[in-house]
Amino acid sequence: MLQRLIIQNYAIIEHLEVDFSGNLNVITGETGAGKSILLGALSLILGDRADPGVLFDKDRKCVIEGIFTVRKQQIQPFFEEHELDIEGEQVIIRREISSAGKSRAFINDTPVNLSQLSDLTSFFVDLHQQFDTLDLGLSEFQREVIDTLSLNAEVLHTYSIGYAKYLSTQQSLANAIQLRDDSNKTTDYNKFLLDELVEANFSENEIEQADADLKVLSHSEEIKNTLNRIYYQLEEDEQPILQTLKQLQSSLQSLANFHKDIPSLAGRMQSSYVELQDITQEIERLNDQVNFDGAKMEQLSDRLALGYKLFKKHGVQTTNELLAIQQHLQEGLDNVLNLDDKISQLEKELAQQQSKLQQQADAITKRRAAQVTPFEQKVNELLVQVGMPNARIKVSMNTTALGPFGQDEIVFLFDANKSNHFAPIRKVASGGELSRLMLCIKSLVASKEALPTLIFDEIDTGISGEAAKQVGIIMKELAKAHQVICITHQPQIAGKADAHYFVYKKTENQKVTSHIRVLSREERIQAIAQMLGGEKPTAAALENAREMVMN
């Protein structure tokens, strides 16, 4: 429950602190005094978006803080999931809005985002504001009411996981079919390209190597003549270069003892001799390898012509790029060939998932259907209690295609005058009827939910007299199991309060500010009498107010 609310620098509130009781809390005051502003500030710590224009003093930040008492086991999973600290059963939520418009939120002094704030507070607060009665006409709200009464949260969670997988499989199947259809348009051409490359049967770097080999064969005679001449001069001439170099090295070595630099020179000459000797042997080897081969030249020319043709066709410059295209084409065709198998497998999976979802949806439908009649009876009984004896509600459940919440279309139908002409609520119910109908429904839903705090902002709009008294009785009953905070203009409801708060305006330093205080019993009687009879209530109004408070 909400123990304390602290508001600083918000709208026309400079500073305000209020402690709430654990039962029925009623807030009254003149129109425009700031009652709904109070709940506007409260909505910020429940995760609503902030407007920097609400700052009372534009030079200071706005701070709203709520101190809640909660059941630790109820919120422990949330705190563990988001790695937040909790001690005992108290949660402090704070919202700050800077003068620059920047908003920050904290749970027990740990910064959080608005989504986390909203998710957490949904566990322990239900805030019903003036225009929330419009939700009553929404199919999603109507379904949620029946699901809450059916205790469907767990089975719906399991169903939603399966439904998400079903949608994913459905999309995968559609993608595979589309890919197959698109691929069929190009498969024949791609197969022709692949067959051409496979038939060419190039190996890595083959075209580049063929070009190099063809150059050697084309100049084989020139290469052999030059190599023969060099080899002859190095090894077989009348005065071979190798032999001359060896003799010169020996002559230099003989002087090694006469000058300190000569040994190093002799060593270098020896190294040159060894290197030149190795070159001679390599020339001889190359000479033996180079031979003119007309047949091989023709073969290489043909391979090069084919290679360059394919280079041009595919817009590449190397053999390896050509081989990469071949591999890509092969993989593409393999995928096309495998698509039929994949599609068949996906269709099988989809059928299995749909069958399982259908079973789950049938179970959800059965649970919902079991609650329809009791729900109609209880709401209709409460409608009589709140002054609508001729009104009736009826729930229409129709089977639809499987969707994210099962297979049921749930519509609340309403007849205000026992005419047996039921129509959707959003089309036929007036504002006052919607308010009372919403209260009846929320009182039933609250009994199935673990929400500690229910907040109503003028849910009594459009009612008075005996109907208002019955609304007060319902709220008093709700307050036995929940903390209820209610902004009201109805004395019949204010008279049921366990704690009565009065909101008023005051002018200080030429600024109008909003304040709140808890009323004593006599102050409550005076305030309720004024609600009954005006600014100067009569003795009868005072007596009537006293009876309301005492009873």
From TrEMBL:
Pfam families: SMC_N. Residues 1-508 form the RecF/RecN/SMC N-terminal domain. The keyword Protease does not apply. The keyword Amino-acid biosynthesis does not apply. One of its GO terms (cellular component) is bacterial nucleoid. Keywords: ATP-binding, Coiled coil, DNA damage, DNA repair, Nucleotide-binding. Residues 269-303, 329-367 form a coiled coil. InterPro entries: DNA_recomb/repair_RecN (IPR004604), P-loop_NTPase (IPR027417), RecF/RecN/SMC_N (IPR003395). GO terms for biological process: DNA recombination; DNA repair; SOS response. GO terms for molecular function: ATP binding. May be involved in recombinational repair of damaged DNA. Belongs to the RecN family. NCBIfam families: recN. This is DNA repair protein RecN. It comes from Chitinophaga skermanii.
